[in-house]
Amino acid sequence: MTGSESIPLARPDLGDREEELVLEVLRSGRLSLGPMLERFERDFADWIGVDDAVAVSSGTTALHLGVRALGWGEGDEVVTSPFSFVSSANCLLYEDAVPVFCDIDPATLNLDPEAATAAVGERTVGLLPVHIFGCAAAMPELEQLAADRGLGILEDAAEATGAVDEEGVRVGARGNIATFGFYANKQLVTGEGGMAIPSDGEVAALMRSERNQGRAPGMGWLGHERLGFNYRITDIQAALGIAQVERAESLLGERARVAELYAQALAPLGAARAGEGDPDGLVLLSADRGQARRSWFVYVVQLPVGANRDAVIADLADQGIDSKAYLPCIHLMPHYRERFGFRGGEFPVAERVSNRSLALPFFRVMGEAEVARVAQALAAALDKA
């Protein structure tokens, strides 16, 4: 490793306002189910442009509550993407529903509507599109499919807080149940935490009950009317969320700035946007199209065909630069192979993208010098690999 300061893969952006609100919670003595919870929900809902939002302990628990609200259960099949963080499929297994994977669009890396249509069968009850890497999925086409076949929709927007779709609608505001996550590397962070956007007031009430051990509004501390879970978010986390929402547009804008720095720094390596250049070369995430706007979550590139990704990761690490293979395909993880018999080759686009993808350091306060250092180190590593 060189004597230069190391560059981490991600770094949460917290400041004076977050500290102020967290201290307010600590001094109040209301650490859970306090006023910050409702305030965070209200502020986030207003920012997204929806009537209500239900804060929970993680994006995964938000997904689980969404699955339950839609009534998906034993033997029900739900069409979803194999190229995602594993929680988007695990949430179905929690209720003994069956994830039915289909291939992805090679440019957006989201669920391919044609592949989704082909995957719908007699036992299909829903679609679970993932807005991967901050790029909105093809919701108009998927919603038409759902309407034609009588299917429910659960949107996983954990990586797409603030994104805008092809019709100019902010992700999460189309009227479907949608979920967000606020892990420490996300656009908005609370450390752990998530948010569910309910489709109506009845769903919102159900989610609020189930996140709190099945307690109904007005019930005593130990009164519970249904099966529930401990999916609560603390007021400390909610305080962080309030501060993050207050400066959400600035945070998103700065992440977009860093992404543009990367695009410029990697251009001399022959890098091109997905769908626009040599598909076997260094491929960047797809560009915005029409009214669609990506919300930059991670900066992922696809390495040139034939490059040794493990060697590139090791070489970058020697230079003090973190990187990660991002993302492995869900269907090729051990418990999915064992349970469903996947062997590889079922979803060639997703598998090809997965095998080439590499996440580079990405966070709001990265400057031109740091981005240039990463780009130069990547170029050197590719020369060796």
Description:
This protein has 385 residues and is α/β, with parallel strands linked by helices. It folds into two domains: 16-247, Type I PLP-dependent aspartate aminotransferase-like (Major domain) (Aspartate Aminotransferase, domain 2), CATH 3.40.640; 249-384, Aspartate Aminotransferase, domain 1, CATH 3.90.1150. Helices cover 38% and strands 11% of the residues. The chain has 13 helices and twelve strands. The protein has helices at 16-28, 35-48, 59-69, 87-93, 113-119, 139-149, 201-210, 235-246, 248-266, 309-318, 334-340, 348-356, 368-384, and strands at residues 54-56, 77-80, 98-101, 124-128, 152-156, 177-181, 194-197, 272-273, 283-284, 299-302, 324-325, 357-360. The strands form three sheets. Strands 1-7-6-5-4-2-3 form a seven-stranded mixed β-sheet, with helices on both faces. Helix 10 crosses helix 13. The longest helix has 19 residues, at 248-266. The radius of gyration is 21 Å and the shape is globular. The model has no long low-confidence stretch (mean pLDDT 96).
